[in-house]
Design a protein that fits this description.
Elements: E1 2-5, H1 11-14, H2 16-25, E2 27-32, E3 35-43, E4 51-56, H3 66-72, E5 76-81, H4 96-110, E6 115-122, E7 124-125, H5 130-144, E8 150-155, H6 160-167, E9 174-175, H7 181-197, E10 201-204, E11 215-216, H8 222-229, E12 251-252, H9 272-280
Parallel strand pairs: 1-4, 1-12, 4-5, 5-6, 6-8, 8-10, 10-11
Antiparallel strand pairs: 2-3, 7-9
Helix pairs in contact: 5-7
Protein name: DUF1848 domain-containing protein
Pfam family, one: DUF1848
Length: 311
């Protein structure tokens, strides 16, 4: 079993204490985001978890706990996003230089193969034209050289919820770069050349369009895990993800509307007000990321389940 922690929120930034409490308890509970009453118990026992993939913009709060994960023998790697966008678009992420320093320190601890740089999503706008993306990508790549072996890029998807959040930014005018083939290929070729210059493989994430000489990648990648940890995994595609997503099967333990970074393009945050409300219900000691256990089947809360249990 692969644990994704998490596409839906930044667990290392905001919920590290909860995560480690669940590792120590040996299990956690998640709700189906489309069916509140459908609850799943997920084992966090080392023998059941082949690897953990952390998705983050700031792992600082998790770093002190990593020796404990190492002592227990957990395999894990990071998908670490750094873009350097304006504060009007990314309200509360760490400043770029601080994020880069943390990235480099984390890489020194784990190895460059276990910290993947994400420059995504690529949002084309009047504040972020092609030339600005080139400047940002080249500068960050140069500063991360030697600290990662892989960079992942993707291009903004304009969902209704993200379009609304982007419209709320005064003066921002966005365009869909995937509909502008010449600009798309110009930027793709530039990023591929810069990545190669700094000895990074470059992959796209869940792109349905042709992105030039950037290969389609897998963020939850059996090849990376085989190389990093010696795991032999089936490579079965995660059917719960979009058709263009190449990731292998995993269990996501996050929840929507719980990330406080305030990125206006984020598909996992529909409403900042809901984020604040959900954060108030977070209890680091609860088996759920959000909310308590009132009304939950007591069998789900046992530290050890009865033999033959279906949970």
């Amino acid at each position: 079993m692969i644990i994704s922690a998490s596409r839906r929120t930044d667990i290392p930034s905001f919920y590290s204490e909860w995560f480690m409490n669940r590792v120590r308890a040996g299990f956690l509970l998640t709700r189906n985001p489309f069916n509140y009453n459908q609850i799943r118990r997920v084992s966090m026992l080392r023998q059941d978890v082949e690897a953990i993939v952390f998705w983050t913009r700031n792992p600082t709060n998790l770093i002190p706990y990593l020796p404990e994960l190492d002592d227990q023998g957990f395999n894990y790697y990071f998908q670490y996003t750094i873009t350097g966008y304006p504060r009007s678009i990314e309200r509360s992420v760490p400043p770029p230089q601080k994020a880069i320093n943390t990235f480099r320190n984390l890489s020194a601890m784990l190895g460059a193969h276990r910290v993947v740089w994400r420059y995504d999503p690529i949002l084309l706008s009047n504040l972020l034209p092609i030339e600005e993306h080139k400047r940002l990508f080249e500068k960050i790549a140069r500063l991360l050289a030697g600290s990662t072996r892989r960079v992942v890029v993707s291009f903004s998807d304009f969902y209704k919820k993200t379009e609304k959040n982007l419209r709320d930014i005064e003066g921002l005018i966005c365009s869909d770069i995937t509909q502008e083939r010449e600009k798309l290929h110009d930027l793709s070729e530039f990023m591929a050349a810069v990545a190669a210059q700094h000895e990074m493989e470059i992959f796209s994430c869940a792109e349905e369009v042709d992105v030039g000489n950037i290969g389609h990648g897998k963020c939850i990648d059996e090849t990376l895990m085989q190389q990093a940890f010696g795991l032999s995994l089936s490579g079965e595609k995660d059917k719960g993800q979009r058709e263009a997503c190449g990731c292998i099967k995993s269990i996501d333990i996050g929840a929507y509307n719980t990330c406080l970074h305030g990125c206006s393009y984020c598909y996992a945050t529909f409403s900042h007000e809901r984020v604040i409300a959900n954060k108030r219900t977070h209890d680091p000691k609860s088996p759920f990321l959000v909310g308590g256990v009132e009304g939950v089947d007591p069998n789900l809360l046992l530290s050890e389940l009865p033999q033959g249990s279906l949970f």
